[in-house]
Amino acid sequence: MQQFFNTQTATLRFIFKWTLLAIPLALLTGSLVALFLWSLDEVTKVRYQHTWLLYLLPLGGILIYFLYKKLGKNSEKGNNLILDEIHTPGGGIPKRMAPLVLATTLITHLFGGSAGREGTAVQMGGSVAAWLGRVFRLEQKDVSIMLMCGIAAGFGAVFGTPITGAIFALEVLIIGTLTFHAMIPCLVASFLADVVCAAWGIHHTKYSISSHDFQPIASYLHVDVWLLLKVIVAGACFGLTSRLFAVLTYQIKLQSNKLIPIPWLIPAIGGCIVIGFCFALGTTDYTGLGVSGPHENSVNIVNAFHAGGADTWSWLWKLLFTAITLGMGFKGGEVTPLFFMGAALGNTLAILFGTPVDLMAGLGFIAVFAGATNTPLACTIMGVELFGGEYLVYYALACFNAYIFSGKMGIYSSQRSTSGKIL
Amino acid sequence: MQQFFNTQTATLRFIFKWTLLAIPLALLTGSLVALFLWSLDEVTKVRYQHTWLLYLLPLGGILIYFLYKKLGKNSEKGNNLILDEIHTPGGGIPKRMAPLVLATTLITHLFGGSAGREGTAVQMGGSVAAWLGRVFRLEQKDVSIMLMCGIAAGFGAVFGTPITGAIFALEVLIIGTLTFHAMIPCLVASFLADVVCAAWGIHHTKYSISSHDFQPIASYLHVDVWLLLKVIVAGACFGLTSRLFAVLTYQIKLQSNKLIPIPWLIPAIGGCIVIGFCFALGTTDYTGLGVSGPHENSVNIVNAFHAGGADTWSWLWKLLFTAITLGMGFKGGEVTPLFFMGAALGNTLAILFGTPVDLMAGLGFIAVFAGATNTPLACTIMGVELFGGEYLVYYALACFNAYIFSGKMGIYSSQRSTSGKIL
């Protein structure tokens, strides 16, 4: 009986402690993410109005380089620094990470670099969490949980998907393994941060997959077997796309550091290449975030959910634009561009396979991300949070298949791995 | 490039191999589960028609005892034997486990013992998987994956929830940790077994939680904070119920083995106690499976989703009936009775808290099970598969809260544990 009360009191204390710690974390992170999403929106509007801003992209890159050189300390390592600190607490995460990544992501987007949001949100969350950890003098094991809460809060708030945020924070640390001890703290932090962000009036883009009446090949089957096989093949394609993106970004970073001896020239040249690509393709659809576009018919994530909303190779162009932007020193996340690649590839495959476009775009949206970050479970859950639960079995098949086909590397070099993805 | 092809070929080979292995497993397990569910239904109908069968419950218990004593070998260890074999392959799982557990579960249900289905389905799946492993001469690491596939197939087919089945198989092995290497094989096996079972014409009970219009306390909040807090408190209650059930079942088994020197007397006395309880309460609502009942107003899982469908202490009565039935030697699973306890307790709490009855019943349904088996993630997913994705955040909060409040024990003694549920 005594033991019963002891464990229950410990559990209650655990919940109270982490709820109390999650409140300031969520207030700060949620507000920062709201500020970030609002300014990202403003910056993107300005870019749509002043298309000449694209020509300044190389200068923006140089500015980012010097901002990090002068002020960055170790914060340039970004998401990887947060993962490292959770695995082996050491140098700490500087407060300046938050404003720096916020400012440089906005610079990237103002001038039309192709980048995302989650890296920025996660780094702001991590930076706030590390600072709060110092303020409250948390012990080391609690600092790890706090940093995971920071990831969860940033991720949950930036996409409006709190459960995905929490599971992402647990899943991203080690490839193929998940532990639950920090689930409740992460869930509370992610949930509150999302509420705070929404309370600032931020709305997230709504995606939807409509209900389709599938024809089972036989009356006694309650699934469409052909669709299922096509989803499995598509899952492999999504995983190979993740792999291509991760390898290409890595190689671009490696080679440009080798071949271009003056470091600030790297982002300048990267900016020039992006401009060149825009001219060659005759469109700026692959610059910026890509959730929506300046005009009705531009290729973007929202349109990729409809037939004709993306071209056959749109996914590849977005992949190249993003690999160059992020591989050559600009800032921002990878996830929204991964959504773009996935949705656009899903669009292409849907036409090829004769399957519903919105379903395939939605599967690509979550599965390319699953493969690149090695977080198939969080992405399956994201499917439910964004598109509803009806297609759960397809989400799971696409995400886990993408995960095993995406190779070991992924976009986070500080992710650990205990064993292979398959035995 | 060579390496690229090597890993992709290995992944393809992995998928083909496990799809091929999953086909016979799913055909056999899905068919056995279909047979089981059909005969369970028949047996329950017979019991409704011939209420005097309850008086033979003690004799049924004695029959079960001697069946296992004469024919059982090591198969009486049930689910725990399968978990043990996955952790440390050794004695093997005998083929006879499948027919034995099928027959004894039917005996339990024919005479009105309070038990479930998942244990039976999982043991049939595990037994088939072990046998196929020997037929195909699988190496040891593949036998482990095959057994996990057997669990997934049995679980997925018996409840019609394939994704839950796959995640359950990964999650049940070690408390608080999950690895993904067997996810694709488990997903394929679970999915196919569900298809096979459905192809035999088996229908699963449909549950639903209707859409509720919640009033956020302030216009800028997109959640109902009060409801959320009530769900968190309810989650703790669900977890404590799981704990009570696990401890009580364990103690009943321990004490009856200590106090009753003649082993076959244990189930006989257990049967008499159940009969006594029925008389004392004046109802047989707490015997059998409890999904539906002999008359419209009986207390059962389906009715617990409506106001007035369960009494204040229904959850406790079902808990006692089941702890006695399973603790004193009858066979069957624990999960359906756990659903019952959870849904009934949810019903009671909904009236106490003034929250929607169907939502709280649904949360109890999954959360008491999550706490007792230490599989909060599978149960969260089960919420999506059974009730839809709308209330995902409540599923996750209820299940993970139940999980941390349910103590370390759980109903599977062979579950391993690497660290505490909270740090």
UniProtKB/TrEMBL annotation, chains A, B:
Membrane topology summary: Multi-pass membrane protein
Coiled coil ranges: none
GO molecular function: chloride transmembrane transporter activity
SUPFAM superfamilies: Clc chloride channel
Transmembrane segments: 20-40, 52-68, 145-170, 182-203, 223-250, 262-282, 315-333, 345-372, 392-411
Name of one Pfam family that matches: Voltage_CLC
Family matches, as CDD domains: ClC_sycA_like
Gene Ontology CC: membrane
Keyword Mitochondrion: no
Entry keyword set: Membrane, Transmembrane, Transmembrane helix
Main location: membrane
Protein's cellular compartments: Membrane
PANTHER family: CHLORIDE CHANNEL PROTEIN CLC-E, CHLORIDE TRANSPORTER
Descriptive protein name: H+/Cl-antiporter ClcA
